[in-house]
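Hey L., structure's done. Input below.
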Amino acid sequence: MIGKQTKGRGFRKLLDYLESREDAKLIGGNMSGRNARELAREFKLSRQLNSDADRVVYHVSLSAAKGDKLDDEKWSEIGDRYMKEMGFDANQFVIFRHHNTDDDHIHIAASRIRMDTGLVVHDSWDYVRSEKVLRQIEQDYDLVQVQGSREKLQRTPSTGQIRRIRREQEEYELGKLEQPPQRIIKEEVQQTIDKASVDNPQMPTLIMRLQQAGISVRTGFTRNGKSKGISYEKDGQAFSGTQLGAAYTFPGLQKHLAVDYQPERDDEPINELLLKPVKPLPIEQLEKLFQEIERKQQPQFTPPPEDKVVWQVLHKYLNEKRYIPDYISQGLHNNQLLYMDEQRNILFIKRDLDGEKTGALIWSKPRENHRTVEYDQNTSTPYGWFYLRLGGQPTDKVENVFLCSSPIDAMSAATYLISSCKGLPPTRTMLIVADDPNNLPMEFLKSFNRVVVAFNNDEQGNKTASAVLELLPQGKRLKTHNPDWSQELEAHLREEQQKQKQLDRGFSL
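Output:
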């Protein structure tokens, strides 16, 4: 049985994926939700117990050997046991079974936040612990004994190192040590190479990333003079590629990790990097770099085609019923950020902060409520938001940020702001739909001295505002008098219209 573990920030995208696979089946766990939306909402309960925690999503896939035959009940039992022995005995988790590959396998999505204490399950040495748990499960359930995928290409730690880690972990849990045991440097180097090579970079790029991560690299011909050799050093400890495992030798990087190496193109820049290494990045910047590399590996979002025949109907509705001026709605439409598709769905396109389209929100009931749902086809990443920018110059840096509950509320708030300012605001202002505390552009928002939390003045908006303000101390709540910004805009325009009528009649206010 093979186990693969990852950690992330957003539950909804993972749950959508697990639910959407052909023949996917929810077979176990300890949660009451029956679909991705219900489960994502339920996971927020544990998220609220520890708002400071970052990567709280735990995802593991367990694959059986080809000779093993397991039914849903047995898979569920194995999933329960695996989670308990990995330290998730008081955590929310759900188990899906997939049949979309040749290997029978399950996926487990879990919160790393314990429901009893609000603390995060520590991930120290989790790969080694996982292999140990799986080997014992294979024995107890009379399953085929397999070698872990990482074991095949990596040199495993020595028995003495594993014993030290276990001893220190036990002492930490008993309160005898203040810090949990640290992963040995060898494993840190292996995992850093894994992260740095996930997008199959060219060899100089890989070396540069390792240097940014504080790992020195040396390359050269081996003793027989026929092939390149490579070695790594971190914190004074050096390892040859062979010592780390087959995947980390110079040929192994190309064969197993698909690193692109062409001697004529790469040898000169490699030598330059070895002579003048780049400086290591601060931890926060390094994490952001690796997250960006991983994010770009996701499949690209393909927006659905527009039904251009009905644009004028939507445009008229927004203008006459929602009071959105032409230059806002038409500007969004011209940039293909607002339109109706061939199924007559009203779509608001989501983008990352660099402007790349990453997904869409569907507004299906404009006459009933403002709620939108995720467009679940071809969505590439959870990182993306619907937003619009106005005021100042297009090239100016954003100075003010408003967080809104829905796309129509963002458009209404923008219109209200323009009306109040008697024109476009003098500084560049951004209104962004970001009402999920688990999916906020935190690094971007932290760069502002003040963030206006302009969620709707209803139960959901106030609840979300409280959660977001805990994450953003510089946030300032802005409440409307009416339940939402659309109604607030309508009341404001009526008041302005009444004032103008009185002025026209010669009255002074």
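The first strand starts at residue 2 and ends at 8. The CA atoms of residues 123 and 376 lie 31 Å apart.

-- N.
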